[in-house]
Amino acid sequence: MRSNLPWGIEVPNDPEHVMYVWFEALTNYIRTIGFENDLSRFNKWWPGIQLCGPDNLRFQGAIWYIEMNKYDYNEL
Q1: pLDDT tens digit string along 29-42?
Q2: pTM reported for the whole predicted model
Q3: Within the chain, what is the greatest distance between any pair of CA atoms?
Q4: Buried b / exposed e along 63-74 (16+ C-beta atoms within 10 A)
């Protein structure tokens, strides 16, 4: 989420910020390396590890965590 971009999806209840990263960008981290089909590999390499860049820390720190819990990745 950013406050200085002229484009993006407006954040509900916060008109000064826009969301510019699509949700599928986050799921691609798992899908491109095949973890969605092999939960044992996912659990071996990803239990409790999240890497966030400073430009999208709020997005990944909140929305990514919520989405992982939605899909029952209980190791978070």
Answers
A1: 667 666 667 778 77
A2: 0.31
A3: 42
A4: bbeeebeeeebe
Q: What are the domain boundaries of the chain?
A: 9-70
**8 Å CB contact between 14 and 21:** no
* Bridge partner list, 10: 18
CA pair distance 47, 22, nearest whole angstrom? 23
Coil, strand, or helix at residue 75? Answer: coil
Among residues 53, 52, 19, which one has the least CA distance to residue 65? 52
Judge residue 1's burial from the number of C-beta atoms within 10 Å of its C-beta, 0-12 exposed, 13-18 middle, 19 or more buried. Answer: buried
Residue with tokens 């978070």: 76
Helix (H, G, I), strand (E, B) or coil at 46: coil
